[in-house]
Structure formats: structure tokens, C-alpha cells
Write a structure and sequence with these properties.
Elements (H helix, E strand, L loop, with lengths): L1 E6 L3 H12 L4 E7 L2 H11 L3 E4 L8 H4 L17
Parallel strand pairs: 1-2, 1-3
InterPro entries: CheY-like_superfamily, Sig_transdc_resp-reg_receiver
Organism: Streptomyces thermogriseus
Protein name: Response regulatory domain-containing protein
């Protein structure tokens, strides 16, 4: 069973994503978060196998959350291109 955490700042999109994933065999959505702080807290608490992260979110840096020990308060986000 794949345990997933869904992170999306738009509630309607997040609930749709959760509904879609919940209908799939082998996937269990174990948590949801609307912003970066909640995402980090939930990921630490739940330890999901997968985090589905909105890469357009301004409240969290996807590159930093992908590290084994993401910072609690990311100050800057490295980007590949300007």
C-alpha cells in the first residue's frame, strides 16, 4: 500500500485529488495540507511514502522538501532557471 500526503493550497483541487487517489487500488491518502508549514508538519508526523506537492505553491520550496531533512522554514528556493 502506498501512503500519500496531498499538498495543494486550493481546497477544491486538493479534495478532487484526494477523491481521485482514494479510488485507486494500492493508494491510501493518509493526510492533506494546504500550505508549506502544514505540509512539513504532516510529512514529519505521518511519514508517507509519497508527497504530492503543488509545485506552484509560494509557501513551500519543492526542492527543499525533497531533501531527507527539509528545513522547517525555507528562506529561499533554488531554481533551475530564472
Amino acid at each position: 500500500m502506498i501512503e500519500a500526503l496531498a499538498v495543494e493550497d486550493h481546497a477544491v483541487v486538493r479534495s478532487g485529488l484526494v477523491a481521485l487517489l482514494s479510488g485507486e487500488l494500492g493508494i491510501q491518502v493518509v493526510g492533506q495540507a494546504a500550505d508549506g508549514g502544514a505540509a512539513l508538519a504532516e510529512a514529519e508526523r505521518l511519514r508517507p511514502g509519497v508527497v504530492l506537492l503543488d509545485i506552484d505553491s509560494t509557501s513551500i520550496c519543492p526542492a527543499q522538501t525533497a531533501s531527507p531533512s527539509p528545513p522547517r522554514s525555507p528562506k529561499s528556493c533554488p531554481t533551475a532557471a530564472p
